[in-house]
Design a protein that fits this description.
two-stranded antiparallel ribbon, single chain, alpha/beta, five-stranded mixed beta sheet, 16% strand, binds zinc ion
């Protein structure tokens, strides 16, 4: 987390009403959450880093059309894939969304949500609280993985690490290409960039162009209901252009 992200903590909470905001992205740390809100024109209406318990105070008043994308699992699940020997041992206890994102789209998350009843990392526990806060406000929430979202926007290009200036520049360029006005975004803070790409996925989910990635169980056992969402990717945009008469 960069020093500039922490400096944001000193700022007063904004007015709770931001008109025209329908897409919010939230990136999680163990104690800090980073929130970016976009209006439909791609203008950044809010970009804040706050202690996790204060997330409700920086969520703008949102209409029922709004979508909030959260970089964290919503809940622990009972594993559905424990006996799947095609998976690495690390992923057998994972949730369906984590497994599908890897097996179907080739984006493997670096973590796995521990099965229900097992201890969790602090950032996941923070995330469960953020999910509760968002859902209690009656908002639609979706799960995202910012690294995969950036890769999807890049059309498969390699990205530098987000902790490097080059990696942050690449991500800024991808956000701009996705319609985000960078003027009011601290592009030196990779956590804010992650929150911004989460907001892009939220926008695309609202517009019906995002992909909900989860698995379908042909054996009738049923998915655990988890899903990780991706934005409308560059490859799909290009392929649609190619097929347009
Ligand atoms: Zn599954």
């Amino acid at each position: 987390m960069s020093a500039r992200c922490n400096l944001e903590l000193a700022r007063a909470a904004p007015e709770p009403t931001v008109p025209g905001v329908f897409a919010v992205g939230i990136d999680l740390g163990a104690r800090i959450v980073h929130v970016v809100a976009l209006d439909d024109s791609g203008t950044v209406q809010l970009a804040e880093s706050v202690p996790a318990p204060d997330v409700a105070t920086v969520l703008p008043a949102l209409s029922s059309e709004a979508v909030v994308a959260i970089d964290a699992p919503d809940a622990q699940q009972v594993p559905r894939h424990l006996g799947d020997v095609a998976l690495s041992p690390k992923f057998r206890p994972a949730r369906c969304g984590e497994i599908a994102l890897g097996s179907l789209r080739h984006y493997w998350v670096p973590w796995v949500t521990p099965p229900r009843g097992s201890p969790c990392a602090p950032w996941m526990i923070t995330g469960f609280g953020v999910w509760r806060t968002v859902l209690q406000r009656g908002l639609r929430a979706i799960e995202v993985y910012p690294h995969a979202a950036f890769l999807e926007l890049s059309g498969g290009s390699r990205l530098g690490r987000k902790t490097t200036a080059e990696g942050r520049r690449q991500r800024s360029d991808l956000l701009e290409a996705a319609g985000v006005d960078l003027q009011d975004l601290d592009v030196t803070c990779h956590d804010i960039l992650d929150a911004a790409v989460a907001a892009v996925v939220a926008r695309d989910a609202r517009l019906g162009t995002a992909d909900e990635v989860s698995c379908r169980h042909a054996d009738g056992t049923g998915s655990d209901g988890s899903a990780i969402w991706l934005p409308q990717g560059r490859s799909r945009l290009l392929s649609r252009k190619d097929t347009t008469p």
